[in-house]
Design goal:
Layout (H helix, E strand, L loop, with lengths): L1 H5 L8 H15 L11 H7 L9 H7 L6 H31 L4
């Protein structure tokens, strides 16, 4: 995720600010600051389809043997990995065209 968001540096000098903004979502939605069980059920249902809980919450739940949906977890990780890989490759090709157009 970070490498893909870093591709924005091809177009803007504010890539660091975008990364810091993205980090706010990571802090709150990954379970780092508060467990996801503290969220309302409707919010938690939406959050579980984002990539953030699978960076900290899901592995930690497995380690402490909490009941988790393994199928949803691994499929969501695979899905987000494929989405971000595709986005990464597309941004890389577009960024090289943008950068090479500047005389490099």
């Amino acid at each position: 995720m970070q490498y893909t968001s870093a591709m924005l540096a091809f177009w803007t000098e504010r890539a660091s600010a975008i990364e810091q903004f993205w980090f706010l979502f990571y802090l709150f939605l990954s379970g780092m600051l508060a467990p996801l069980e503290m969220f309302p059920a409707a919010v938690r249902a939406v959050v579980l389809w984002t990539p953030f809980p699978y960076l900290i919450y899901f592995p930690a739940s497995i380690l402490v043997e909490m009941p988790v949906n393994y199928t949803q977890g691994y499929l969501t990780i695979l899905g987000w990995s494929l989405i971000l890989l595709g986005l990464n490759r597309w941004l890389w090709r577009k960024g090289l065209k943008q950068y090479s157009g500047m005389g490099a």
